[in-house]
Amino acid sequence: MPYPQNTSQSYEMQPIKSVKSRTVVLPSTDIDTDQIIPARFLRTTTKEGLGKQLFSDWRYDANGTPKTDFVLNLPESQGAAILVAGNNFGCGSSREHAPWALMDFGIRAVISTEIADIFSSNALKNGLLPLVIDKATHAWLMEHPGADVEIDLETTTLKLPDGKSVKFPIEAFARYCLLNGIDELGYLLNQDDAISRHERAYP
Amino acid sequence: MSQKTLFEKVWERHEVVPETADTPAVLYIDLHLIHEVTTPQAFTLLREQNLKVRRPDRILATMDHSTPTTTEEIFGRIPIRMESAAQQIHKLEDNCREFGIELLGMTHKDRGIVHIIGPELGATQPGKTIVCGDSHTATHGAFGALAFGIGTTEVGHVLATQSLLQRRPKTLAINVKGRLPAGVAAKDLILAIIGKIGVGGGTGHVIEYRGEAISALSMDERMTICNMSIEAGARAGMIAPDETTFEYLNGRPKAPQGAAWDKAVAAWRELKSDAGARFDREVDIDASALEPMITYGTHPGMVLPISGSVPTKPDDPAFAKALNYMGMTPGERLLDKPINIVFIGSCTNARLSDIQLAARVIKGHKVAAGVRMLVVPGSQQIKHAAEALGLDKIFLDAGAEWRESGCSMCIGMNGDLAGKGEYVVSTSNRNFEGRQGQGARTLLASPATAAAAAIRGRITDPRQFL
Ligand code: SF4
C-alpha cells in the first residue's frame, strides 16, 4: 500500500503512481457533500482531522456511537483505500472539506459512473483519484465489495482481480502533476508574464 | 467568423493561455468573492509559501455562512454564542486586514449572503468571470457573467495569481418557451428544469437559459434560476444581458458610472449567443404548462407539481431510502401534508421581491399554531428596504421571526437548525439529508408556497392566497 491508512496526516504533494487496495462499497446514488461531511463540521480553519467526521450522520448514532451496520464501520472495511459509490458521487456544495475528510480517513480513490465536477477538481488537487468507469465494470464492483483492485495512473487503467483491466479518463495535466508530485500553483505562478499581459490588455 | 455562444464569448476573452491536449487553459478571473468558511486554509497556504495576494482590488469579502442572525449577536451586545463560528469570523477579519481586502464585516450596512451582495452592489456585471469558494456562485450568471464555484485550493490559486487552470466545459441550452402562468414563480421553473434533466443532467456543462419565459423574468427571478444550476450538476448557468439587466445595474455603487457606463453597456449588448451558434446539447421546456412545484425527496430532482402524489418505484432501494428519510409513502398526496417550520431565506430566494411575495401571501393571516416561521433577508440592504416598506411588521404580526441577514437555516452552520423528523418548507436550494439539521426533512418551494404553508400548517397551493 503506497500510503498509510486511516491516520491523520498532512497532504504534502507526493507523487502517486498507483493505488492498490481492497474496495469498500457505498451503493447509494447522488451522495452529496453534505453526507460526506455535514456542514456543522465546516466551522474549522484547518484541513486536519476531518476523517473522524466523514459520513458522520450515516456512521454514528445520536450518541456518537458508531453504527455497527454502516459499511465503513465493518471490520473488513478497515484499511480499504478505494471507495466504490453509486452514480453522481460528490454532488452539491464545493466544500473541499469533502476530499480532505476522505483522505484523512484513508481513502485514496473514489470510483463511480459519474462524479460531480467540483468534487473531481477538488479531489485531484489533494491526490484523491476520482475514477469514472463504464456501467458494467461498476456493476461488477458494486456486487463484489472487498475486491482487490489496482488503479494504475501511468497507464490509466483499473486492474480487476480476474486480471481484466479497464481504461479510465483523467485530465492530462492533473495526471501529470499527480505522477510527478507537482503542485499546480507553481505552474500558475510561472504564467506571471502572460497574466500581466492580459491585465494590461484588459485593465 | 463562426457564430459563438454567450459562454464562448466570455470564455475566450478571459483566456490568458488557451488550453491544449496536455494543459488546461489559464483563465483570468475578474471578480473573486470570498467568505469565512472556505478561505482560511487558502490564506494559510499563502502565508506558508510567502505569497502575496495579486489583486486585492478584485476581491470582495463578506461573512454569511456561520454568522448569527440575531440582532444582539450581530451588533455585539452579546458575544457570538458559537465559539467556532466566532473564530472563523475573526480569522476572515484578520486575513482581509493583512492582505488589504475589502470586507463587509459583521456590522457593515452592505453585508449579506455573498451571492446577493455582489449583484446588489453592482460588482457582478455582464461578461465578467466571477468565482467564489461556493457552489452557488452560478447565481451571478444571471447577468451574463461566467460564474462558478471553486474549492479552497483554487481559492488559493486565485488569491495568488488572479487566474485558474480550467478545462473548457460543454454547453447546454435550456430553451424555455411560453410564459409562466400567474402564481407560478421562477423557483417553480428551475425546480421543474432540474426535475426534467436530473441532478447530474448538467454535469460537465455550462447552461444557457434562453427563450421568451427567461427574457420576461426580473433580475431577482433570473438569479433564482441561475442559482440552482449546480443542483442540475452544472457549475455555471448564464442568461444573456438585456435592458432588464442594464436597468438593474445602472447607478449601483460598483457599476461603471458616466461615460464608462455608456461604453460598458455598448460592449454588454454584444454578449449574447449569435443566431445559429451551436450548443453541445439543447433541452426544451414549456413554461406555460407549469404549476407550483415542491420537492418530496432528498435531492432537488425529486420534485413534483404541488398537486402531485409521491411516485411508486418498487425496485429502487435509493428511492425507498429517500422516502424513508422523508417519512413519505409511495402514492401519498403532497397537498395538506402537515409541516413544522417555514424558512424564507437563502441566496435562492431572499431578495426583496421574494420577501414581498411571501409578505403578500401572509398579510392579514397568522402562522398556524405549532408552526415556526423564520424570515431571513439575504442582505442588510434588503432587510432595511423591507423594513422601510413595513414588511417586517407583516411577518411579526403574523407570528414569524424576522432576522438579520445570512445563510441561516439554508445550511444551519450558525445554529439556526430544524429538529429531527421536522418538515421544513424552505425557499433554499438543497434538500439533502441533514442539510437543515440532523434528521430534518426539507421541502423546497417558492416563497409563495412557503408562506402559504405557514398559514395552514400544511402543504398548500399558494394560488389560493395570491
Ligand atoms: S444561502 Fe445557502 S446555498 Fe446560498 S451561499 Fe448560503 S449556505 Fe450556500
Notable features of this structure?
heterodimer, A: 203 residues, alpha/beta, Aconitase, domain 4, 7-stranded mixed β-sheet, 8 helices, 30% helix, disordered N terminus, B: 466 residues, Aconitase, domain 3, Aconitase, Domain 2, 5-stranded parallel β-sheet, 19 strands, globular
Describe this structure in words.
The complex is a heterodimer of chains A (203) and B (466). Chain A has 203 residues and is of the alpha/beta class. Chain A has a single domain, classed as Aconitase, domain 4. Helix content of chain A is 30%, strand content 16%. Chain A has a 7-stranded mixed beta sheet with strand order 4-3-2-1-5-6-7, sandwiched between helices. Chain A is globular and about 60 Å long. With 466 residues, chain B is of the alpha/beta class. Chain B folds into 3 domains: 161 residues, Aconitase, domain 3 (2-Layer Sandwich), CATH 3.30.499.10; 93 residues, Aconitase, Domain 2 (3-Layer(aba) Sandwich); 174 residues, Aconitase, domain 3. Chain B contains 16 helices and 19 strands. Chain B has a 5-stranded parallel beta sheet with strand order 5-4-3-6-7. In chain B, strands 17-16-15-18-19 form a 5-stranded parallel beta sheet, with helices on one face. In chain B, strands 11-10-9-12 form a 4-stranded parallel beta sheet. In chain B, α7 packs parallel to α9, α13 packs across α15 and α13 runs parallel beside α16. Chain B is globular. The N and C termini of chain B lie far apart (50 Å). At the A-B interface, α4, α6, α7 and α8 of A face α2, α4, α6, β8 and α12 of B. The site of iron/sulfur cluster has 13 residues of chain B, from loops.
